[in-house]
Specification:
By secondary structure, the protein is of the alpha+beta class. The chain has 6 helices and 8 strands; from the N terminus they run ααβαβαβββββαβα. The strands form 2 sheets. It has a 4-stranded mixed beta sheet with strand order 4-1-8-6. α1 (3-19) runs antiparallel to α2. The longest helix is centred in the N-terminal third of the chain and has 17 residues, at 3-19. The relative contact order is 0.21.
């Protein structure tokens, strides 16, 4: 089954079951309450979900000539950060592990490069002991900034990347950066 369809169906069930206020009544003998049915459905969905993909991610950072000049003028490097997270399962313990963004942090990897270039983020920073508390695919975000070693300001304007690790690992992630001065008006 398509996991996107499965997740969408699950979220729809949650939204519909949680939006309408209902009067509490005693269930008839031998019948399940809607909450129990919902919990069983969530547990069944979680059990059917495939194991998360864990794989390295290749990243290629490009810089405009103005971005290269800005970095060179301040003796700055390029900081590339890959952060890994997962959606929490329904269990109380998993929910407690979720941070303010609603996800469970699984690891982070920071790499400095001198300028434009390619790098690989290995999957060894992912805390595999926390995967059992997550549901679905691992998410990866990639953020590129100047290293801020000689100046506190970020000199680069780079797009933020957010995708499942399964998708990100299939091809090289391309991040095209401009100088901040190119995007500020």
């Amino acid at each position: 089954m398509n996991k996107n369809l499965l997740i969408t169906s699950f979220l729809t069930v949650l939204a519909v079951s949680g939006c309408a206020r209902r009067e509490e009544t005693e269930p008839a003998a031998g019948t399940e309450t809607p909450q129990a049915a919902s919990a069983n459905t969530r547990e069944e969905i979680e059990k059917q979900a495939p194991a998360a993909t864990i794989a390295p991610v290749n990243v290629q950072v490009t810089l405009t000539p103005a971005a290269e000049a800005a970095l060179k003028s301040k003796s700055e490097k390029v900081m590339v950060v890959a952060a890994y997270s997962g959606d929490p399962r329904a269990s109380e313990q998993a929910q407690k592990l979720a941070d303010t963004s609603g996800t469970i942090k699984l690891g982070e990897n920071k790499q400095l490069i001198d300028g434009a270039g390619s790098l690989t983020f290995q999957d060894d920073v992912i805390d595999k002991s926390r995967l059992g508390f997550t549901f679905g695919e691992v998410q990866v975000t990639i953020n590129v900034t100047s290293s801020k070693s000689s100046t506190p300001e970020n000199l680069l304007a780079c797009p933020f990347y957010w995708e499942t690790l399964a998708e990100a690992s299939k091809q090289t992630v391309k991040i095209d950066c401009k100088a901040m001065s190119e995007v500020q008006h």
